[in-house]
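Exam revision sheet. Question 4 asks you to relate a sequence to its structure. Input first:
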Amino acid sequence: MEKNFTKDGLILLNKSKGVSSFAAINELKRKIRAKKVGHAGTLDPMAEGLMIVMINEATKFSDNLMKKDKEYYVEMELGYKTDTYDSEGTVVEKYTSEINISDSEIIQAVNSFKGKIKQVPPMYSAIKIDGKKLYDLARKGIEVERAERNVEISEIREINIVHPKKNSENAQNIKISFYAKVSSGTYIRSLVYDIGEKLGVFATMTRLVRTKIDKYVIEDAISLEKVEDEIEKFINSINGNQSLDQRNKALVEVLYATGMRVSELTNLTLEQLDLENSIILVIGKGSKERYVPIGDFARTALETYLEEGRKDLMAKERKEHLFVFVNHLGDPLTTNGVRYILEKLIQESGLTLKIHPHMLRHTFATHLLNNGADMRTVQELLGHVSLSSTQIYTHVTKEALQQNYQLYFPRSKAGKSEFDASTFKKNNGGKS
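Answer key, structure tokens:
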């Protein structure tokens, strides 16, 4: 069962800090064009590290993986506490006296939480009480009683303690780091809070990295950026001087460089090419025409294929037609033929990521938008009738929008903004 699960859609994702779990897996879903995605445990936006993402049929294993033990790398500071128990919250209390605690006392306090313990979840969590999520109540300034939960911390290791310089501004904010292996449902923020209470000096979590879920480790995970790197590696892996090699190189380069649909590619004729000016006339849905530029890599690959590979394939079978991309018999390629070619090339490349034709179109659009292209231009290049279709390729967070608005709009400064980006981050209520 596990073998099939891995084959059918397990991706280890290294989530970046500042991105919600929901945004991360949905970004991955768009990149790989999956129908369904699931994950084995939420991470708060401030947390980073390993997420197990299940693709399509593999989502049925989600509940099982959610129950597995997890390991975290934790950083914390003594001397203050926040309303969220982490550094992105508002400081609600500081320890004003000098902290005079030995390293051995700190280590003893941290280790005292090993084993089966009872833990109170933080207010900023997704737990529901009377049908209301705790973080919704917390944002309104409402604090309610939370029932203790039975959790287990099976291992705490590599405790490290750093004392700031005595004359520094935060001289008493002793920094502590450690690794903790915990049962499902454990809140690391609550653990840090409890350590501070144990020491009597307050404590706040400053960093959290999930390093392991069951047997799956962060070293084997990929970032969202790595997905795009994999596509680049895939394209660069296509080599060879045989006719079909030249065709495959040109096919993938053109798909990637133009963002055209597979059906548009298979219907492409020689009359639609203006390689001298690096322009292709694409005929899209409803016979709507659009001009799409083509970059040097794609143009060079296409010229080589047309001058050598296509000519050989056509002559071999004595075929005469104007379609650009042909099969080994000289007949026009079909959409299924293109998908078959991509699957075969992926197998030959040795890459683990499944790359679908639409991923190349998606990455094309994402590259343009992330590097400053306006949405109307991307809409035209993709052949979208509606701008709303193009907007699915934008992944700007609400926080980033708010920050840019506050920074650049001259009339945004009067009075306090109703939207607090730091508060907005306290969403999702992930177990961290």
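Marking note for examiners. Residues 116 and 152 are 4 Å apart (CA to CA).
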